[in-house]
Specification:
Helices cover 32% and strands 25% of the residues. By secondary structure, it is an alpha/beta fold.
């Protein structure tokens, strides 16, 4: 089969190589899965760079979530067992971790429903306890993570404000259902949030960016607000001023979705059932900005790494737009 493999750490476009290799062999409790679609996530870039919290042995294949088909014909979502990730024609995964792909979504959409939407749901509901009528501030609003958060926030009855970088991303975000879109390149985030909320600020902040995004967020978070720390896509890990959190009476909440797979797998399945229900209702639908063939995976991962993409980029090993 064909698979992208990383033999040394570095930028995705430089270290990913498309190679012929053997199909992975399932171990006990595992199944072989044909990859129908592999969604590209920022962690795929971090894996290539050797900066992710999990560092598989070299060489490895990136690709942390797929929609695939089992030998008995089931269409499933899963996180492949590294070092044999999803940018390949076949993967292996734990049978116990397979989730049924929603019938209302095509392969590319289904592949993008898993990590980003699960992270959004656990962040907004399990960790922040977002309530109807509250204001949600979402950073990286035009990306895959942000587009998931806005849909989940609106489904929960919240007012959602999105922050983007540049007019092109602002136009993309404007079509996603945000109540307000702020371009951080030309607008003052803090002033715009306070104006939109009558001076109150955002009740919940969803921050996958870190750095300056976090610094601005705590300046416009509401009384009893919750800042959800999802990731550090800008590469800068903030150092929270705990005296500031005390004086303003807000919470800083960490979210590592992957831990739920081992600590509370039943919660992951319950979340998937809820996401499937919301997808069937049309309340959520992954924004797929581009479908690329297997040969285009390295360039697409680099675009996600560089922050130049919008929505979700999905790799289709067959090369067809499913």
């Amino acid at each position: 089969m064909q698979a992208w493999r990383v033999h040394r750490n570095g930028e995705p476009s430089e270290v990913m190589r498309l190679e012929e290799t053997d199909r992975p062999t399932p171990g006990d409790g595992q199944v072989l899965i044909e990859v129908l679609a592999a969604n590209i996530n920022f962690p795929d870039a971090l894996l290539c760079r050797g900066q992710y919290q999990v560092r598989p042995p070299l060489p490895f294949t990136p690709g942390v979530e797929i929609c695939g088909r089992t030998a008995d014909g089931r269409r499933v979502l899963t996180t492949p067992a590294l070092p044999n990730g999803g940018f390949a024609e076949y993967v292996v995964a734990d049978e116990a971790a397979l989730l049924p792909a929603p019938d209302t979504l095509d392969d590319a959409e289904a592949a993008a429903l898993h990590i980003g939407y699960q992270t959004g749901w656990f962040g907004l509901h399990r960790r922040a306890h977002l309530r109807a009528g509250e204001t949600l501030l979402v950073h990286a609003a035009a990306g895959g993570v942000g587009s998931a958060a806005v849909q989940l926030g609106k489904a929960a009855g919240a007012t959602v404000i999105g922050v983007v970088g540049g007019p092109d991303k602002a136009r993309t975000a404007a079509g996603l259902g945000y109540d307000l879109v702020i371009d951080r390149h030309s607008e003052d985030i803090v002033a715009a949030v306070k104006e939109a909320t009558g001076g109150r600020g955002a009740d919940v902040v969803y921050d996958p960016v870190g750095g300056d995004a976090y610094a601005k967020s705590v300046k416009c978070v509401a009384f009893e607000g919750r800042v959800i720390v999802v990731g550090f896509a800008c590469g800068v890990i903030p150092t929270p001023a705990l005296n500031h959190a005390l004086v303003k009476n807000y919470s800083i909440v960490g979210l590592h979705w992957g831990l739920y797979n081992t600590k509370d797998p039943a919660a992951v399945r319950a979340c998937h059932d809820e996401l499937t229900r919301l997808a069937a209702q049309g309340a959520i639908k992954p924004l797929i900005s581009e479908r690329v063939g297997l040969a285009g995976a390295a360039v697409a991962v680099q675009r996600v790494a560089d922050g130049t993409s919008t929505g979700r980029l999905v790799v289709l090993p067959s090369g067809a737009a499913r």
